[in-house]
Amino acid sequence: MNPKDQVAIVTGGSSGLGEATARALAARGAKVAILDIGIDKANQVAAEIGAIAVKCDVSSAENAENAIAEVSQKLGEARILVNCAGIVAGMKTVGKDGPHPLDLYRKVIEVNLIGTFNMIRLFADRAGKLDALEGGERGVIINTASVAAYDGQIGQAAYSSSKGGIVGMTLPVARDLARSGIRVMTIAPGIFKTPMMAGMPQDVQDSLGTAVPFPPRLGEPAEYAALALHIMENQMLNGETIRLDGAIRLAPR
User: Span of the secretion signal (predicted)?
Assistant: First the structure.
C-alpha cells in the first residue's frame, strides 16, 4: 500500500519509534493521526508535521474507540495502523522486597499486549468495510514487539511476556483478517535510541552499542520507520515478525 493520501494512525507517536514513523509517513504524504497518552508532546509533533493529535489510552476500549472515531471524523477512515505505544517495567519475579507486584505485571500486559490487540480489533472492524485497493488490500497493521520477546533478560518477565504475546498473535490475527484484505506484521527492535536510552550516560550507550554484532551501534528510530514503510508497500509481507536488531542476542543481564 502506498501511504500517500492514506490515513495512518500511529500510537505512541509522540516520541521514539512512533515519532520517527509518524514523521516518515507525513513526509510520504500520508494523513497522520498521533494517538498518545502524552497529549502535549503529541500536539507538538503533530504541529511540526501537519498531523493531528488525539489523547488515547490504548488499553481502554472506550478510549480507543472514541479516538479512532475522532480520527475518522477529522481525516477519514484509516487504512494504516502502527502500534508503538508501550511501557517498560524492570523487576525480578522475586526480589529483595518480595514477589513481583501483580498489579505492575498486569499494567504492562494491559498497555503493551492488550492495548495492541485493542487497537487492532477496532481498526480492523472499520478498515475491513472500506473499498478494496489494488490487489484486494484494505489495510495494513504493524505492531511493535522487541527482541526481549525471544531473549528476555533478568527482570524482564512482565515486558518479555507482553512482547512475546504480540509475536504470538501476529500470525493468527493475520489469518483472521486475511479475508478482509488486511495484512498484519510485527517488528521486533533490538537496542534503539529511544528517549529512555537517551537518558543514559554516553559511555553506557556506547557500551550497549558495541554489543551489537553489526552494525556495532544503537539502532536509529528512522531505521524502524524505514522498515515500517517497506512493510506497508510490500504486499507479500504478512503474518510475520521481523527482528530489527543487528544480529544481537541478549545475554541474561
Answer: none
Task: Say if 110 falls within a structural domain.
Answer: yes
The enclosing domain of 63 has a CATH number of 3.40.50.720
For residues 51 and 90, give the distance between their C-alpha atoms in angstroms, rounded to a whole number: 33
Distance CA 171, CA 185 (A): 8
For 197-237, how does the pLDDT look when each residue is reduced to its tens digit (9 = 90+)? 776 678 767 778 889 999 999 999 999 999 999 999 999 99
> Under 8 Å CB-to-CB from 118, ≥6 apart: which residues?
58, 59, 60, 61, 64
210 located within any domain = no
At 154-202, the pLDDT tens digits run 999 999 999 999 999 999 999 999 999 999 999 999 999 988 777 667 8
Q: What is the pTM of this model?
A: 0.96
Whether residue 87 is contained in a domain is answered as yes
